[in-house]
Design brief:
The protein is 88% helix and 0% strand. The protein is elongated, with a radius of gyration of 17 Å. The protein has one domain. The model has no long low-confidence stretch (mean pLDDT 89). By secondary structure, the protein is mainly alpha-helical.
Length: 98
């Protein structure tokens, strides 16, 4: 039987996974748009290379590092994070300008 504190902790982990997933999906879409824009440029400046590196780093952090760290703390929070991240990323991907 689960105690009240375990139930509350699970709910808080689900809520935090939900909100972190929304944040990560929004900024992942921005990162993908930055990558597209940077790769479409003809000449690469140091600023555009930094923007490209930062965007790739954010995508790696959002899709690999943070979820694995969160899964080491709570499985249910990581599942909520991935579900929200993938759902809103796919919606944003379809609606993003090509």
């Amino acid at each position: 039987m689960s105690s009240f504190s375990q139930i509350v902790n699970s709910l808080l982990y689900i809520i935090s996974g939900f909100f972190f997933g929304i944040f990560a999906s929004r900024h992942s879409i921005f990162s993908v748009m930055n990558i597209r824009r940077t790769l479409a440029e003809k000449d690469f400046s140091p600023a555009s290379l930094f923007r490209l590196a930062f965007s790739i780093l954010f995508i790696v952090l959002a899709f690999l590092v943070f979820p694995s760290w969160m899964a080491s703390r709570t499985t249910i929070g990581a599942i909520a994070y991935y579900a929200v991240l993938l759902f809103y990323f796919s919606k944003g991907w379809k609606n993003s300008p090509k």
